[in-house]
Write a structure and sequence with these properties.
3 domains; HU Protein, Chain A; single chain
């Protein structure tokens, strides 16, 4: 899903204009970014946590020359999904997986029945 798709989905569910929804989403993302600049993390209870960690100088190899180089330190941003968010995602997957298993079992039983009928003749 792209940002425009997300904006359309939010606007539809919240009954807002696309323009207002886009403004809201941009402000929310700006707040997350500025929160990370000021703090080590931004926690959205029920959704997840954005964290920043400093990655120290690391050694690398220049692929063109083969020379060893130092890679400058940088800030890595990570996201850890919250339990409620994980549960929402996994419950749909589990339901779909259970449906697929049930359909596969039905198909397997149907094959066995047709094999039994064909061997009786």
């Amino acid at each position: 899903m792209h940002k425009k798709d997300l904006i359309r989905e939010i606007a539809k569910k919240a009954r807002l204009s696309l323009k207002d929804t886009e403004s809201f989403l941009n402000v929310a993302l700006d707040c997350i970014s500025s929160g990370l600049r000021k703090n080590k993390y931004v926690k959205l209870v029920g959704f997840g946590t954005f964290k920043k960690t400093l990655v120290n100088v690391t050694k690398g190899i220049n692929p063109k020359t083969g020379d060893r180089i130092d890679i400058d330190p940088y800030t890595r941003i990570t996201f850890s999904a919250g339990q409620n968010f994980k549960d929402k995602i996994n419950s749909k997957k589990k339901k779909n997986a259970m449906k697929k298993k049930a359909e596969a079992l039905k198909a397997e039983k149907a094959k066995k029945k047709t094999k039994k009928k064909s061997t009786k003749k």
